[in-house]
């Protein structure tokens, strides 16, 4: 399969372009936000961490009801509304001057982001045929990584200038990107049969009583601990526990972004049903165990060249495992969700992202930076156990996947 960042013309392309645009803004935001809140707003690191932890806790809780709202009122309009709400919350960050204002704005931001993710997934379910969803999601992930890389470069320029105006410009860029994202989503066709109160079943929040799906979502949440691994735990490990040069941190982040951008679509091409999805997640768990083992070896007093080779190998295994887990999880999350309730089910499944962002930093820094090599091995065992357990969990939840589902009837669908 040849590499294509943007899908062929149709709704999938519109979804990918909207992701590319708002991830470009996010890239600038992620690079500059921490220093903006500390150096310009004047918040301490502890208070920034406390506010963001509270915000993502709120986001984890509100994603499900917002997903249900998308089921009842239509995912397209809901996604547009939440993209605009995200833009407004980022713009409000430019006005905060106290911890209370920061925490409140961060809660709105996390709520809008969590709901937007659920609404987007429900919109994708209505616009893309079931057998094509994982492939489209792979394209979206590639677009996200490309946008983040470009946005991070723009944010880097703001950091280089280092003034209050440059920091605020980076945040304003993110707000504008979400407004453009809303316009792109508004231009998409409406999913057939989805609108105000389109599904009677969507009126009931049944996902909270679905124990098999809850187990699947919990295992995925464990696997999502890889998110703060590459952004936080590995940089701290390199700085505190290895003799590798500081630039190795940037090199590994660049490697991760580039590999996902170039190879996520190809990695996902073999995932077409629950069986292949379970195999992908299981294989991802094995790769993550191997990656953690190689990272543990970098604590040795080896020459710098050997350390860099080990770090590169470990990061390569990690991103390969990440891509396989992602592809499998996408397929599983849709195939196990009842038709007409994609919003609330995707909101519940996607709650693993804010939970990983909230709990992951504390857990991973304790395991890796504090415990060292044993912590790496324990983390790898946790990834392996979650990957292996996904098969039995999916089989427990699997009978609903046999229910027939009509393909979306949208002009120009892929």
Tell me what the structure shows:
The chain is mostly helical. It folds into 2 domains: 11-187, MFS general substrate transporter like domains (Growth Hormone, Chain: A), CATH 1.20.1250.20; 207-399, MFS general substrate transporter like domains (Growth Hormone, Chain: A, Up-down Bundle). Helices cover 77% and strands 0% of the residues. The chain has helices at 11-40, 45-73, 75-93, 99-127, 133-161, 164-186, 211-223, 226-241, 247-268, 274-297, 304-335, 342-350, 352-370, 373-397. Helix 2 packs parallel to helix 4 and helix 9 (247-268) runs parallel beside helix 11 (304-335). It is globular. Residues 194-202 and 401-414 have low confidence and may be disordered.
Could you name the key traits of this structure?
single chain, 414 residues, mainly alpha, 2 domains, 0% strand, disordered C terminus
Question: How are the SSEs ordered, and which strands pair?
Answer:
Blueprint: H1 11-40, H2 45-73, H3 75-93, H4 99-127, H5 133-161, H6 164-186, H7 211-223, H8 226-241, H9 247-268, H10 274-297, H11 304-335, H12 342-350, H13 352-370, H14 373-397
Helix pairs in contact: 1-5, 1-6, 2-3, 2-4, 2-12, 2-13, 3-4, 3-6, 4-12, 5-6, 5-9, 5-11, 7-13, 7-14, 8-9, 8-13, 9-11, 10-11, 10-14, 13-14
Basic shape = globular
| Count of individual helical segments | 14
Helix and strand element order: HHHHHHHHHHHHHH
Strand content: under 5%
Overall strand count: 0
- The total number of structural domains is 2
CATH class of the largest domain: Mainly Alpha
Question: From the structure provided, what is the oligomeric state, counting identical versus distinct chains?
Answer: single chain
CATH topology name of the largest domain, in short, is Growth Hormone, Chain: A
The low-confidence runs, each spanning 5 or more residues with pLDDT under 50, are: 194-202, 401-414
Largest sheet: none
CATH architecture of the largest domain: Up-down Bundle
């Amino acid at each position: 399969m040849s590499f294509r960042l943007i899908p062929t013309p149709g709704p999938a392309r519109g979804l990918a372009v909207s992701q590319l645009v708002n991830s470009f803004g996010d890239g600038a935001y992620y690079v500059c936000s921490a220093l903006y809140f500390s150096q310009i707003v004047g918040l301490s690191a502890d208070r920034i961490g406390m506010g963001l932890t509270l915000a993502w806790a709120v986001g984890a809780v509100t994603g499900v009801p917002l997903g249900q709202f998308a089921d009842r009122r239509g995912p397209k309009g809901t996604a547009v509304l939440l993209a605009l709400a995200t833009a407004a919350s980022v713009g409000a960050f430019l006005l905060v001057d106290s911890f209370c204002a920061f925490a409140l704005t961060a809660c709105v931001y996390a709520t809008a982001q969590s709901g937007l993710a659920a609404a987007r997934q429900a919109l994708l379910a209505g616009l893309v045929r079931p057998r094509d969803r994982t492939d489209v999601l792979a394209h979206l992930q590639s677009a996200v990584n490309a946008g983040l890389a470009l946005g991070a470069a723009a944010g880097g320029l703001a950091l280089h200038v280092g003034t209050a105006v440059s920091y605020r410009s980076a945040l304003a860029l993110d707000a504008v990107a979400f407004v453009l994202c809303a316009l792109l989503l508004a231009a998409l066709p409406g999913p057939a049969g989805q609108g105000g109160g389109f599904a009677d079943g969507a009126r009931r929040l049944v996902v909270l009583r679905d124990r098999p799906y809850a187990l699947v979502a919990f295992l995925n949440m464990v696997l999502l601990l890889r998110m703060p691994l590459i952004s936080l735990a590995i940089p701290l490990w390199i700085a505190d526990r290895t003799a590798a040069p500081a630039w190795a941190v940037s090199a590994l982040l660049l490697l991760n972004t580039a590999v996902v951008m170039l190879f996520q679509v190809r990695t996902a091409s073999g995932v077409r049903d629950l069986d292949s999805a379970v195999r992908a997640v299981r294989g991802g768990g094995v790769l993550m165990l191997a990656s953690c083992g190689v990272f543990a070896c970098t604590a040795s007093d080896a020459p710098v060249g050997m350390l860099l080779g080990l770090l590169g190998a470990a990061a390569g295994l990690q991103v390969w495992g990440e891509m396989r887990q992602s592809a499998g999880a996408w397929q599983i999350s849709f195939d196990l969700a009842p038709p007409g309730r994609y919003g609330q089910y995707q909101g519940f499944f996607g709650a693993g992202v804010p939970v990983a962002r909230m709990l992951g930093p504390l857990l991973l820094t304790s395991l890796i930076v504090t415990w060292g090599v044993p912590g790496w091995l324990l983390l790898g065992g946790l990834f392996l156990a979650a990957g292996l357990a996904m098969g039995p969990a999916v089989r427990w939840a699997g009978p609903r996947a046999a229910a027939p589902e009509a393909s979306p009837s949208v002009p120009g669908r892929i």
